[in-house]
Amino acid sequence: HVAFLAPEPLRAGHVIVATRRTADYLFDLSVSEQAALWDCVRVVAERLRARLPCARVCVSVVGWVVRHVHVPLVPTDAEGQMPALAGPPLPAAAALALAARLRGER
Q: In whole angstroms, what is the distance from residue 49 CA to residue 11 CA?
């Protein structure tokens, strides 16, 4: 894996951890490749938190913009310093139907 400062950082210390092997989709990696990636992410996040310092290191893996598996790490000190991934509320009936579908009931 390789870790480098983000060229367009959300905050100072924003680091990207990427796989050396080119892969388009996180879940195309083998279980052992995913484990190795997250082990590296943990080490880099711990280092960021210790050396900057910051309250938390946030993670957001989206998977569409850059077609190479990577994990952005953003040092933060307060809520709102990392873009949210929230949409509008899901109506209760739609949530129940979706949950049933994901369980394989429909």
A: 13
Q: What is the pLDDT of residues 26-45, one digit of tens each?
A: 999 999 999 999 999 999 99
Contact 49, 8 (CB under 8 A): no
For residue 26, the 8-state DSSP code is G
- Judged by DSSP in three states, 61 sits in coil
pTM (two decimals): 0.86
Residues 49 and 40: beta-carbon distance below 8 Å: no
DSSP at 28 = G
Q: Can you tell me the distance from the alpha carbon of 48 to that of 5, in angstroms, rounded to the nearest whole number?
A: 11
CB 19 within 8 A of CB 7: no
Place of tokens 């873009």: 83
Strands 56-59 and 70-76, by their bridges, are antiparallel
**Rounded Cα gap, residues 23 and 7, in angstroms:** 21
Phi first, then psi: give them for residue 57, nearest 5 degrees.
-115, 115
